[in-house]
Amino acid sequence: MTMLAQGLTGLALALSVVLLGTSRIRTAAGVCAAQAVVAACMAAVLSHPWLAAIQLVFAAAIAFVASGLPPQSARVQPVALGIGAAVALLATTLLDPGLALGVALLGAVIVAARAPAAWQVLGLAALQNGVVLAAMGSGLLIPVLPLVPAVAAGGLWVAGRYPGILQRWPRAGWIDAIGCILVLLLALTLQWLPSPPWPMLHIDAFGAVAIVLLAAVATAAACPTRQSSATAPPAGARLLVVLGAALAVALQPMPLSWLALVVAVIAAAAAALPHPAEAWRLLRLGCLGLGVALLGTAALPEAGPWAPACIIVGLGTLGWLAPELALTAAVLIVRQRDVASAHALLVLAGLAAMAIAGCGLMLRRDAERLPAWAGFGQAGAAVFAWGIGTPDAHVAAILHLVMLALTQSAVLLARDGGLDRIAALAGLAGVPPFGLFSSLALIVAATAARSPWLVLPLAVGLGMLGWPILSRLPRLGPVSAPRSQLDWIPLLLLLVAGFAMPHPVFAWLRAAAVATP
User: Fold this and answer.
1) How many CB atoms lie within 10 A of CB 422?
2) Residue 479 carries which DSSP code?
3) Which helix (H) or strand (E) segment is 343 a member of?
4) Which pLDDT value is given to residue 225?
5) CB-count exposure of residue 386 (10 Å: 0-12, 13-18, 19+)
6) What is the pLDDT of residues 188-235, one digit of tens each?
7) 455-471 helix and 419-428 helix, angle to the nearest 10 degrees
C-alpha cells in the first residue's frame, strides 16, 4: 500500500471516530458519505476505476437517502466513544491492514451503541466502507457491493412503507412443513447421489450430516401444530431459512456461502414479522454478523489471524438468529481449521460462546429466548471440541451437533407446561437421560486426554450454561390444548442416539468426522 493510500485509510478512520461522536443524523450521513468518497479516492489511487465508481454511487445513495430523513438527534454515549477511541488507537498501531479493520469495527460499534434504526443503518454503511478499504487487493466483487447496508435499509423501508404487509401475506402452514420435510428426505440421500456437475457445489460426508441436522430442526420449527394463526410466520420464510442454510454448507467457496447466508438471514428476520421489533432486531444483528464475516472472508487475506477471527465472530453472531443458523455457523466456523493457529481460535471461540450464552441466560430472564441462548452456547461446545483437534474430539463434536439438533427439535415441538418441555430444556442443559449428556461426556473425556488443563474452563463454561437453564425450568402445570405427540419423537431418538446408537449410524457419523475439511 502506498503512503497516499495509507493516508486515505487513516482519514477514513478519523471520519469513523467523528461519526461515532456525532449526534445529528444528517451530519452523520454526510460524514458517512464523505467516508465512501475517501474509499473511492483510494480505489482510484490503486488503479481500480470500477471500484471507485461503485463507491461514488454508494456515497450518492447515502446522501440521497439522508436528504429525506427528518431532523433527529441521538445521545452520544461516552462508553461507546471511549471504546471507539481505543479501537482507533489500536488500529493505528497495526497500520496495514489494521486501519481498514478499525474503520469496519467502528461501524460495528455504531450499530451496537445507537438505538435509532437509521443510525444503525449508517453504522452498517460505515462497516461496508471499512470492508471496501480492506478489500482493495482481493480481486473479488462480492466485498465491494454494499449488500449488507442495502438489506438493512430495504428492511427498514419496507417496514415503514408497508406496515400492514403481514396482514396481507399468507401465513405459514403445512406448505413450509412439507417443504422442510422434502429437504430433509433429500438430505438423507445426499451421500448416495452422484457428485453435482457444478464445481462450486460440493457436499462431502460432513456437509451431508450438517444438512440433515439443520433440515430436521427446520422441520420441527415449521410444524404448524406448535403455532397459532396469530403468531405463525409468513409462508415460505422457514423454508427459505433452511434452503439458504443448506446452500451455505454445500457451497465450498466462502464468498458464495456468504451470499447464501444473506438469503437465510433475510428469511430468519421475515419469520419474526409477527413481532416487528423482534424482526428488526434479528435483521440488524444478522447484517452486523454478515458484515464482520465478509470482512474476514475476502477483505483481509493478508491479515493473519485477524481474518479467521473476523469470520468466527461474524458467523457466531448469526447463531442467535435461528436454530438452523446456529448449526450452520458451527459448521462453517469449523471449516476455518485450515488456517494457521485456527485450532486455538476454535477453542477460544467455543469458550467465548459458552460464556456469552451463560451471561445472556443470567441477564435475560425472558423464556422465549432461553432456547436460542442455550443452543448458541452448546454449538460453541462443539466448536471447542473441534479445536481440540484429536479424532476422538472430532467424533464427540459431531455427535454433540446431532444431540443438539434433536434437543432443539424437541424444544420446538414441546407443549407449554408439559412434561416434554421440561425434559427437553433439561436435556439442553446436559442433564441425563435426555439431551446432550452423553456427547458432553465424550467432549470432556477427549479434552482431558488431549489437554487436561482445558477441562477447568470447559467445566466453567458448561456450568454457566446449565445452571441458568435448570433454575428456570417451567413448573409442571396445565398443559395447553393437545395438538400432537410429535414432541416425544426427538426425545426418544435422543435416548437411542445417546445410549444405543445403531452401529451403521455411528460409522456414518465417524466417517463424517474424519472427513471434516
Assistant:
1) 16
2) P
3) helix 342-363
4) 59
5) buried
6) 887 666 666 666 777 778 888 888 898 888 888 887 655 555 567 777
7) 160
Note whether 136 and 104 are within 8 A (CB).
no
Distance CA 224, CA 483 (A): 10
Q: Among candidates 81, 29, 35, which has minimal Cα distance to 56? A: 35
What's the one-letter identity of residue 412? L
Q: How far is residue 331's CA from residue 401's CA, in Å, rounded to a whole number?
A: 9
Angstrom CA distances, 118 to 20, 123, 394, stand at 14, 9, 44
Residue with C-alpha cell 434433536? 406
Q: For residue 274, which phi and psi values (nearest 5 degrees)?
A: -55, -20
- Mean of pLDDT values over 112-120: 82
Question: Measured between alpha carbons, how far is 169 from 163 in angstroms, rounded to an integer?
Answer: 12
Q: Are 512 and 396 in contact (CB under 8 A)?
A: no
430 CB neighbour count, 10 Å cutoff = 25
What is the secondary structure of 274-305 as a DSSP string? TSHHHHHHHHHHHHHHHHHHHIIIII-TTSTT
Which among 131, 142, 136 has a CA at the least distance from the CA of 106? 131
381 contacts 438 by C-beta, under 8 angstroms? no
Q: Please, which residues have CB within 8 angstroms of residue 442's CB and are 6 or more apart in sequence?
A: 392, 395, 396, 399, 400
- What integer is the mean pLDDT of 390-418? 87
Tell me how far apart the alpha carbons of residues 392 and 381 are, in angstroms, rounded to a whole number.
14
Q: Which amino acid is present at 379?
A: A
Kindly state the average pLDDT of the residues 16-40. 87
Q: Which pLDDT belongs to residue 340?
A: 46
Grid coordinates belonging to 182: 422434502
CA angle 101, 378, 214 (to 5 degrees): 90
> Which grid cell sits at 42?
483510494
Helices (H) and strands (E) in the chain, counts: 23, 0
CA-closest candidate to residue 220, choices 368, 409, 423: 409
**Percentage of residues of the chain with pLDDT beyond 90:** 20
> What whole-number distance in Å separates Cα of residue 121 and Cα of residue 284?
8
Question: If DSSP codes are grouped into helix, strand and coil, which group holds residue 2?
Answer: coil
For residues 478 and 470, give the distance between their C-alpha atoms in angstroms, rounded to a whole number.
20
Query: Nearest 5°: CA angle at 384, between 378 and 390?
Result: 130
User: CA-CA distance, 238 to 183, in Å (whole number)?
Assistant: 12
CA atoms lying within 13 Å on the CB side of residue 430 = 23
